[in-house]
Amino acid sequence: MYISKLRLQYLRCYQQLTLDLPPGQNLFLGPNASGKTSLLEAILLLATTKSPRTTYDRELVQWGRAWGQAAGRFEFDSDPPRAIAVTLLGQGSSNTAGEAPPSYLTGAKCVQIDGQVANSVARVVGQAPAVLFTPDDLDVVKGPPGVRRRLLNMAISQITPRYLADLHRYRRALQQRNELLKQMAQHKADGASLAPWTSQLVEAGVRISADREQFLSQLRPVATQLQSQLTGDTEQIGMRYSSSLAGAGDEEQREAVFREQLERQFDRELQRGATQVGPHRDDVEITADGRSLRRFGSQGQQRTAALALKLAEAQVIGQRRGELPILLLDDCFSELDKRRAGWLLELLGSFQQVLVTSAAASDSLRKADWAAWYELEGGEVRQTQGVAGTDG
Ligand SMILES: Nc1ncnc2c1ncn2[C@@H]1O[C@H](COP(=O)(O)OP(=O)(O)OP(=O)(O)O)[C@@H](O)[C@H]1O
Ligand SMILES: [Mg+2]
User: Fold this and answer.
1) 169 pLDDT higher than 70
2) Secondary structure class of 392 (helix, strand, coil)
3) Do domains 1-129+325-392 and 161-300 have the same CATH topology?
4) Distance 314 CA to ligand 2 centre (A)
5) CA 191 to chain centre
6) Ligand 1: which residue has its CA nearest to atom 3?
7) What atom in ligand 1 is closest to the CA of residue 359?
8) In the predicted structure, residue 35 carries a pLDDT above the cut 90
9) What are the tens digits of pLDDT across the range 262-302?
10) Does domain 161-300 correspond to CATH entry 3.30.70.100?
11) Is the CB of residue 373 less than 8 Å from the CB of residue 22?
12) What is the Cα–Cα distance from 330 to 206, expressed in whole angstroms?
């Protein structure tokens, strides 16, 4: 699948932008603050309804504007094209003179699929999958466990529609349960009120953990393969699902294990006023040649591994859906040495559409085979070379 048209209105530095995009490899060149990340962010917003940079959607809306919108047209191998639009409420009072938010924007965010307002924002997730790699993704290797859980959540929700619902149920049960545990410690609540939340926690938690384990088992061989392609066969990446429910078996067995662990931890839960075991504590241990990359990896090794993981995520989403997601690479060439950059460029050919941004056109970027080449400056995008598009 690929995105053939992108239209932005009042999003970040873009007041109005209409862009035609060909399949294949697209290069976006522009100095700092020219809108490179914002462009990829908008495509990820269409794919996931979320920004990778902030949890506050209104920050995406251009300063002073009442609303902003991203709209895209997505082309599929087997399905008819699909139009997706995400409209966000801003903090300003109006857009151009007197222009109030569109009437369909009744909340803070609204999603339209083929012109129809979707009754739930979550409905759009997975309709047009995309995977973004940014320099911040180094945190997937280096950062705290929450970053890796987020990677799992983002990837799995694009292939398993019920996963997001399970995650919401789990988080709600966790929150309620923790609240009750605190009250119970002060004798303000009893065990009977805890039981239904424990059941919900277990039910959703078991599915989440089974999904994560299955996803990782698919991700592992692909990441291993990519890592060796990116390092000229010199590094072997490893990935272990680190969870109290790892390897716990089928759903029924997993449920028994989870319940038993919760019972065993009950005294500690009461002391701490918080649930001590479960998928909210999951992690993925990433190794190179058997050693923790988080603790022992060089910066370049960590970066390459993070990249291999993201590319693997994209390929697994592709395997599960039968079509590869759009690959978005934000500024990831600047820190790779020449050989690794060359290996990465070679790999990109296996995706249906790739959007690459860079602040500088290095030799290896110049020499690569681009379907289209764009230059960005102050919220304007100009296509300077390419096969498709209106102003090529
Ligand atoms: N809500 C907003 N409204 C208007 N402008 C914004 C908003 N949020 C960010 N900006 C501005 O948009 C510009 C483009 O930001 P962006 O992060 O896309 O640049 P970039 O090309 O990725 O830069 P870099 O090379 O430094 O990563 C910046 O000047 C930023 O301050
Ligand atoms: Mg940027």
Assistant:
1) yes
2) coil
3) no
4) 21
5) 38
6) 62
7) 25
8) yes
9) 999 999 999 999 999 999 999 999 999 899 999 999 888 89
10) no
11) no
12) 35
